[in-house]
Fold this sequence. Notes:
Helix 1 runs antiparallel to helix 2. By secondary structure, the chain is mainly alpha-helical. It has two helices and no strands. 86% of the residues lie in helices and 0% in strands. It is elongated and about 65 Å long.
Amino acid sequence: MSGFGKQQKMGSGDKAIGGFAIVMALVLAFLLTPAFHGETVEWATGYMLDHYGYWLASIGWYVWFVLSAFLTYFGALVAIIALLCVVPMLVRFVMLMFAR
């Protein structure tokens, strides 16, 4: 029970992988946010107009741009972290399968 409640310390490699994931998510969010926003802004502002009135729909374009940027960033971050976790496992699995 000596290790109970203690967190394992991160090594420099873990910090580098986390930093890489954050930087790549920022780059992907910068590249993908305009496309995502352009495809969904009419739906979002229409929804705001129908349910909340003209006052929110008038600022809805800007509000939806900020929200779509957050959605794009966090979606990219989750996808990159998932890939960074899955790829080493797949490599180990393939190595174990062909080692026999």
